[in-house]
Amino acid sequence: MKIALPDTQGRLADYTLTGTPIAQAVLPANPARIVYSAAHVVADPFTASDPSGRAAVDWDRTMAFRRYLAGLGLGIAEAMDTAQRGMGLDWPGALELIRRTKAELPEALVGNGCGTDHLDPSDARTLDDVIRAYLEQVEAIQAVGGRIVLMASRALARVATRPEDYLHVYAQVLSACDQPVILHWLGEMFDPALAGYWGGSDFDATLETVLVVIEQNLARVDGIKMSLLDKDKEITLRRRLPAGVKMYTGDDFNYPELIEGDDQGFSHALLGIFDPLAPAAAYAVNRLAEGDRAGFRAALDPTVPLARTIFRAPTQYYKTGVVFLAWLNGFQDHFIMLNGHQAMRPLPYFTEVFRRSDACGLLRDPELAVRRMKALLAVHGA
């Protein structure tokens, strides 16, 4: 099967698809690694609202995608950055998403993003403002029986002046959590407003702050998700975590190596890239359970060039690539996103994602993918 794809000057050349769709597998109840997919939401393309207005979500398609992930045995990281949390999806929309997922999939492994995004950072004056905002979301999520992924706070980054401020806020918030939570260390490449989080810019110093937060609240912490796109930093923290505290990799560049691990430990996964890579993740972790490390790497290593393309700088727009692939693969009938984010990447980005997705077997219906890629090319005048 062929398709004519343009280069950066608009010159067309035939591309022949060569990929074989990844073999299907389902993770068991006790997999070799805990795997969360940070799932996207499907926008309603028929809303009369402007993209800059209130988010309009196609709930049927959004829930159908979550059933698909749960059917593969994957956990769902709900209302996180991949769902355009804070970039189209506001807190009321996020809470509705959390409620619907809990009602639709009551037995599924779900962690729910809990933050302070309903508090405009410019309105935060004190640490108590931040604590109240966190506790409002903690209470709402726990009221529906949801478990928490405690996300980084732009408001906290704005008002905190020293590491001790983070220790105080996290102690207050964690004391209100009724189940152990997953902390989230999100780097500024994902959100520039989080620069200096944990009270400084030096990694070694901020690492110590994070470890104190965990050690002072051990009974309330299940693990930590680290999203710095730096495998060495993740391994450094992983080796120093107290016994029983899990590392969940959020490194969308180096996940095969980090999940496989070494003789001193391994990372579980909570990844945005495991939205489009869900079948590869399920198959690979099953191979790991069988002791087939080579098979694990053979399944995941070829996906890394695709992940690095989707998450290239500016990294916060990676959602555009995630939803583009969902459209190519038939999980939605359109390529429209909350807040108009389908326009946040140029055409060469989409052609590269198409090629790399084919190369690693992630186009589950190549004929459909080709038809839809041609439609996108036509919109761009190619």
Descriptive account of the structure:
This protein is α/β, with parallel strands linked by helices and 382 residues long. Helices cover 41% and strands 13% of the residues. It is built from 14 helices and ten strands. It has an eight-stranded parallel β-barrel, surrounded by five helices. Helix 9 packs antiparallel against helix 10 and helix 13 runs antiparallel to helix 14 (366-379). The longest helix has 17 residues, at 127-143. It starts with a strand and ends with a helix. The mean pLDDT is 97.
- Proportion in helices: 40-55%
Query: Could you say which overall geometry the principal axes of the C-alpha atoms support?
Result: globular
Percent strand equals: 5-15%
Q: Give me the Rg, rounded.
A: 20 Å
Distance between the termini: 19 Å
| Strand arrangement, major sheet | 3-4-5-6-7-8-9-10
Rounded average pLDDT: 97
Q: State the helix count.
A: 14
- The low-pLDDT segments are none
Order of helices and strands: EEEHEHEHEHHEHEHEHEHHHHHH
Largest beta-sheet details? 8 strands, parallel, barrel
Q: What structural keywords apply?
A:
single chain, 382 residues, alpha/beta, 8-stranded parallel barrel, two-stranded antiparallel sheet, globular
Topology summary:
Layout: E1 2-6, E2 12-16, E3 35-38, H1 59-71, E4 75-78, H2 91-104, E5 110-114, H3 127-143, E6 147-150, H4 154-159, H5 163-174, E7 181-186, H6 203-216, E8 221-227, H7 231-238, E9 246-249, H8 255-260, E10 268-271, H9 278-289, H10 293-300, H11 304-310, H12 318-328, H13 347-359, H14 366-379
Helix pairs in contact: 1-2, 3-5, 5-6, 9-10, 11-13, 13-14
